[in-house]
Write a structure and sequence with these properties.
The chain has 309 residues and is α/β, with parallel strands linked by helices. It has two domains: 219 residues, Rossmann fold, CATH 3.40.50; 69 residues, ACT domain (Alpha-Beta Plaits), CATH 3.30.70. The two termini are 33 Å apart. It binds adenosine-5'-triphosphate (ATP) and magnesium ion.
Length: 309
């Protein structure tokens, strides 16, 4: 189990992470979902003993990350956001070296594991290509492969599918799930909704260094007010008269980003004509109307007031 207790990280006057309390269960896949600058990487690097927390405490299987960094490091494998591969080496040597540093595997076992992951991500033929000559997506795959081959007890992936094409993303998700099935606890930082939703058992929504919600994607969606969202596009620059919708008891919340208004409600189908009529009578120009079920994206918007678009 990994436990963050009021953990914080201050850079100068900036609280990159603040009062962060969270327990990560053994063998779960936890998604850390948040926009750029939310503090995801900082959280992971504190857990991985790269950064020292400036307040609170973090422990990994009962070991405090500040007091026992070497023991903690043995448990964790991190696939960094920016691939940290030695450009002169080919993918095979990069991975072999990583295993040599992080595991007790013998030479042959290392070679086997490296071959297995490189074949799985279709980089076997490119195994000798210097990694600085690889494309961004290929380099990212090599970075992810470090942890996939290492099979650490705690596997951390920082935006594992950034730069990857669609088939490669699906494959990477599958491989991350298999890693968990073999016994690893997995933490994935992402700013992509579909990744958080499809990969994680629980999603922690992080915004401005703080934990704003944590639950399964389904629960997060069901606790988002209403269960349905009416999306309205209104004329640019129009102030939306929210108070008009207060008379409908089925309407629980209204948020607006620029000219996109989201109305969280129940019985949307019945209310839609009435809402449109009420607004039109008031002179609001509605360009489009769309009624849909709540998605994780709405949950995010609801908790942070920020869209990820
Ligand atoms: N070494 C550092 N020195 C100073 N400020 C930092 C440092 N690392 C991160 N920050 C700041 O801390 C905040 C959180 O950054 P962090 O990299 O953790 O965000 P993130 O959620 O991983 O974002 P992204 O999705 O862009 O990767 C940002 O405002 C960032 O500028
Ligand atoms: Mg990051």
């Amino acid at each position: 189990m990994i436990s963050f207790e009021k953990a914080g990280k201050r850079f100068g006057t900036l609280d990159a992470v603040k009062d962060f309390t969270l327990e990560i269960r053994d063998q779960e896949i936890l998604g850390l979902l948040g926009p750029n600058g939310a503090g995801k990487t900082t959280l992971m690097l504190m857990m991985g003993t790269v950064y020292r927390p400036t307040s609170g405490a973090i422990s990994v299987n009962g070991l405090d990350v500040v007091k026992h960094p070497n023991d903690v490091r043995k448990l964790i494998g991190i696939a960094f956001q920016d691939p940290r591969v030695d450009g002169i080496l080919g993918a095979f040597d990069v991975l072999n070296w990583h295993l040599k540093m992080t595991t007790t595997l013998g030479k042959e076992e290392r070679a086997e594991r490296v071959e297995q992951v490189l074949r799985a991500v279709d980089l076997w033929d490119a195994r000798k290509k210097r990694t600085w000559l690889m494309s961004g997506g290929m380099r990212k795959k090599v970075e992810d492969c470090k942890v996939l081959a290492q099979r650490p007890s705690i596997a951390v992936f920082d935006e594992p599918t950034a730069f990857l094409d669609v088939p490669s993303r699906l494959l990477m998700w599958k491989m991350i799930r298999e890693l968990r099935d073999q016994g690893s606890t997995v933490i994935v930082a992402t700013n992509m909704m579909d990744e958080a939703e499809r990969l994680s058992e629980r999603v922690a929504i992080v915004n401005r260094g703080k934990l704003v919600a944590i639950d399964s994607p389904e629960k997060l969606k069901s606790t988002t007010k209403g269960g349905e969202v009416l999306e309205l596009t209104v004329g640019v620059g129009q102030q939306f008269p929210r108070e008009l919708l207060a008379e409908f008891s089925e309407v629980q919340d209204v948020t607006q980003t620029e000219n996109k208004v989201s109305v969280y409600l129940t019985s949307g189908r019945l209310l839609l004509p009435k809402i449109v009529e009420t607004l039109t009578n008031r002179g609001v120009k509605i360009d489009s109307v769309h009624l849909k079920e709540v998605t994780l994206e709405d949950v995010f918007l609801n908790y942070t007031g920020q869209s990820l678009d």
